[in-house]
Transcriptional regulator, LysR family
Amino acid sequence: MNEVRAISIFVRAAAVGSLRKAAVDQGISPQAASHAVMQLEKSLGVRLFHRTTRKLSLTEEGQRLLHSVEPALATLSSAIDDARRAKDEVAGPLRVSAPMALGRAVLWPSALEFAALYPDVQLDVRFDDHFTDLVSDRADVGFRGGSPPSGGAIARRLLPIQLIVCASPAYIERHGKPSTVDELDAHRCTGYRRANTGKQAPWEFLIGNEIVYREVATTLCVNDIDAETDAVLAGLAIGQLGSFSAAAHIRGKRLVPLLTQHMTQRESIYIYYRHRTEQPLRVRTFIDFMIARLADNGDFFLEPAELRA
């Protein structure tokens, strides 16, 4: 027996004085309404109604039950209405999970723009470079750089990630620039230590039709992509940076791309989320907003002509 449904029928029948009218209001047959109330009476071990062919009235036990359950049903009805409104209003809590590596350069400006447009959304953004999923993060929406996430989430590709070897004009003026991958051994280089493994990421190059990984000796290694970018901009070393970090600096002549014939572009930035029909409007609106701002946005990667320049 569905006790909540049976109690709802009981309360409605008490209000209108008829099981038949209560059944119509509940969208069920009179027989189903009568059966539900009889089952409730059997479960409680008391009669709730005096029944005649013309009249339905509450027993003393029925009066006491009605008095007890009406406030609870009102609270339940209010909660259901709130949940329905949440599906139709751009308001309420919204939790987002994203790598620190993508945060400031790619995601944060658009997230701030969204927050300004929708002030009734309580945006809760967690930046963490460890690989996680929506369930463990208790997140509504996630972002990831690399391969698309597994685990049943829907993933939408936003941007390619080009790994670009680059240096500042000041570094090149002092140390020159390598013309081959092997010549990197004679240069100062930066490194990035991955948060999820604690290991230094190898540099990767397209050699012919194959991607080749090289362990590059580094003079400066960090676990923060923005810090690595700052070191390369300062002229301390050559770095292999993601296009989302390097593109604007290359266009602004603050960095010079090197060894572009060996640049790789095998990974991407993804947004991922649960099935859209299960999402409240605030979540669907955020997903659409971020896709509109970021999908194939040329600010975050270089065109072939720019790499040849």
Observations:
- The longest strand covers residues 154-167.
- Residues 12 and 25 are 8 Å apart (CA to CA).
